[in-house]
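Progress against Task 2.4 (sequence-to-structure conversion) is shown through the following example record, which the project officer requested during the mid-term review.
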Amino acid sequence: MEKLENIVNNYYNDFQKYMPIKNMESYVLDIKPMNEMKYVMAETIKKDSIRYLFLNEGFAADLLVSKIIERWKIGILYHEFTHIADDMILERNAVPLSKKYIYRSYIEYHAEFIKTLYMLGIYPFPYNKTKISYMDKIDSQYNNVSVYDYLIKLKTGYIKDIDVNKMSDRDSFISYYDMLSYYLGAASVYRLFCGYNINEIIDISEFVKKLGKSAEQLKDVLLDSITINFDEKAAIKSAELYIPLIQPFL
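Structure tokens generated for the chain above:
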């Protein structure tokens, strides 16, 4: 466990330099069985004033045995570290943990935005690249594909996974809107640095068919948010759209 803690903590320190952010809160690292986390590689929660970072046991094993850890796997950690950073801001703004869920669309969007920046080797301050080619390779779960193909595969996979017959199930509903936020976070980076066939990349009509017009409204709010740090304006606007969607499940 100590070796794993050192690996993750080193990336946590790197993340703070990457953003840059100082004095992020400490966390307790723990491993969960794969059947408990299903397809989730990592997640962070705060309970009784203690911050936890849980890793899927398969993902934890990969971090331990890999001589070279792929950039997309480090990106998964950066996604969770962004959640920790955003939670700290919400706490400073006196938002109780019980109300944090209303900002979920923005929070997932922001985390995926940072993850994708990192996967592409783009550093925030200052941006070390002003443009990327749609043919540039990205280290991802789809292996070494072009960034354009990565976005297409990502969107196709998410749309396929959304089952309209399960929209009345709370966990499924939340998961499906998370998928939209993930995709928009990645697409936003592409839009910011590469203009090739951008209309196809930001077209979410298939999401709208399954999730409704609210998906398009969230897209309009989220894609306008391209700041590295927590975007309070976008968070509030997205929350105003998300609250009536999640209300029936509360």
